[in-house]
Write a structure and sequence with these properties.
Elements (H helix, E strand, L loop, with lengths): L1 E10 L4 E8 L5 E8 L13 E10 L2 E9 L4 E5 L1 E4 L6 H13 L2 E8 L3 E2 L8 E10 L12 E6 L1 H10 L4 H13 L9
Parallel strand pairs: 4-10
Antiparallel strand pairs: 1-2, 2-3, 4-5, 4-7, 5-6, 5-11, 8-10, 9-10
Length: about 190
């Protein structure tokens, strides 16, 4: 595919819509729409800016999961603690702030932070990091009135049961599945 052009078609408060025009393998134009958190002027800016973090958190031998109402699907799902970087904030600062706001917990130890990856590559250039952390403290919510989040720590057996009956975000489901099979990541990550 060859990118022929890009233009902004909508400018929302949090998301911007872009129309991308490609030349496909048959030499025909293919028009595609994406959303982005970023204002972009040039196609070479697609997928370049880090937007936020998703946090896979453990406390002792339990996995932190959020049961939260997500407006995009109009229902509660299980999710990881996550959020977008605010202006002039580092990824580490974002991780600590989001963890505290959504759960009341604090970072005890950063286990690992993976290289940035795309959150929804079929429809967006949103790029985030996945952080693996040990947490401490007492669960309490400090979220805004626009968020409905219930944070809890789950054992391997509890996570196995949730995976059979509940709906998850894809990242949370993958982390929960690995945790259910292998236990806490901080005891199995070797590098």
């Amino acid at each position: 595919m060859k990118l022929l052009g890009m233009r902004k078609i909508a400018n929302g408060k949090y998301l911007k819509n872009y129309q991308l025009t490609y030349e496909n393998r048959d030499g025909r134009e293919k028009v595609y729409e994406i959303v982005s958190r970023n204002d972009m002027e040039q196609p070479d800016q697609l997928g370049c800016k880090l937007s936020g973090v998703s946090i896979v958190a453990f406390c002792e031998d339990k996995l932190l999961l959020l049961k939260e109402f997500r407006m995009g699907v109009n229902k509660e799902i299980y999710n990881l603690c996550a959020g977008f970087i605010e202006p002039n904030e580092t990824m580490d600062e974002c991780m600590k702030r989001e963890l505290y706001e959504e759960t009341g917990l604090s970072v005890k130890r950063i286990i690992d932070v993976l290289n940035p990856c795309y959150s929804a590559v079929a429809i967006s250039d949103i790029k985030t990091c996945i952080a693996f952390v040990e947490v401490e403290g007492t669960i309490a919510s400090h979220t805004s009135a626009n968020e409905e989040i219930a944070a809890a720590l789950y054992s391997r057996e509890e996570v196995k049961e949730l995976l059979k009956t509940e709906e998850f975000s894809s990242r949370a489901q993958m982390a929960a599945y690995y945790f259910a099979l292998n236990g806490p990541f901080h005891k199995t990550l070797a590098w």
